[in-house]
Specification:
There is one protein chain. The chain contains twelve helices and no strands. It has 278 residues and is mostly helical. The longest helix is centred in the first third of the chain and has 31 residues. It is globular, with a radius of gyration of 19 Å.
Length: 278
């Protein structure tokens, strides 16, 4: 029996409220360390978005409408898993970027660090919202496994893209370059959108599911030609390059916020287009 829309929405709202309350408690502890600065707020924006994404996904994927007790039990279990994955993975991603110094940079009020941290939480929320699906213990285990696979895929593509830029994202963010953080954040969220798309569909066995996953994530490669051809060539009027170029100089040297925002928007538009059409 298909549950009523209002019934599902009620579970979604309840999950969202609980998640925000937990986030509020954690945020109070973090704000005492980081101070009430813009960097901390940008990081918190990512956490809030992630909570909303996970709450909506849990309500949609876990509520069956057969039994209130059963629905409540599995919504609670999947939501708990989702929120733990968001916080833990966001923390790990933040440490990976600056070797554990990102939190200290946020404490100092480094806005670029806050933007990067917020992007990590949004990206994690997107992955968790697609991976968390099911209404039994088997589905709970599969959710954790495929989320781990998606996270490794995201980090691998981010490392590849970072290797193809002439500047070091970590050093630029440490140096309070908000333009570099915007570029990095836009790419991170866009890659997560395409990786999350690969998590769609029912589990049909390991061989079939993994082949479908690999075919879907291959679309991430399309983001790099977009950067070099659409942004660097058509907008900046410079020749496309495999590595570096006028766009990298504008981000790293000129710290051009408008161009960084345009680059990030181009990534996002491309990812959303592929996710809808491919």
């Amino acid at each position: 029996m298909e549950p009523r829309t209002t019934y599902v929405i009620a579970f979604g709202l309840a999950t969202m409220i609980v998640g925000l309350v937990l986030l509020r408690v954690a945020s109070r502890a973090a704000s005492r360390l980081a101070g009430d600065n813009a960097a901390h707020r940008f990081s918190q924006v990512g956490e809030v978005v992630a909570v909303f994404l996970v709450a909506g996904a849990v309500a949609k994927n876990c509520v069956e409408g057969v039994s209130l007790a059963r629905d409540a039990m599995f919504v609670a279990a999947y939501a708990a898993l989702g929120f733990v994955l968001v916080i833990a993975t966001g923390w790990v991603s933040n440490r990976a970027l600056l070797g554990g110094a990102l939190g200290k940079e946020i404490e100092k009020g480094n806005t670029a660090a806050g933007v990067a941290a917020g992007a990590h939480y949004v990206a994690t929320g997107i992955l968790v919202s697609r991976a968390v699906s099911g209404s039994d213990l088997r589905g709970l285990g599969l959710s954790a496994i495929f989320f781990g696979l998606a996270l490794v895929t995201l980090q691998a593509f981010m490392a590849l893209f970072r290797a193809l830029t002439a500047y070091d994202d970590a050093e630029e963010i440490r140096g309070e370059n908000v333009a570099a953080a915007l570029s990095y954040g836009g790419l991170t969220v866009s890659v997560s959108l395409l990786v999350a798309r690969a998590l769609e569909g029912d589990f049909a066995g390991w061989s079939v599911s993994l082949k479908g996953y690999a075919a879907a994530v291959a679309w991430v490669i399309a983001l790099y030609p977009v950067r070099q051809i659409l942004v660097q060539s058509l907008i900046l009027g410079a020749a496309p390059t495999l590595r570096g170029g006028k766009l990298d100089a504008a981000i790293a040297q000129d710290r051009n916020l408008g161009l960084a925002a345009l680059e990030a928007a181009t990534y996002l538009a491309t990812a959303l287009g592929i996710a809808r059409l491919a």
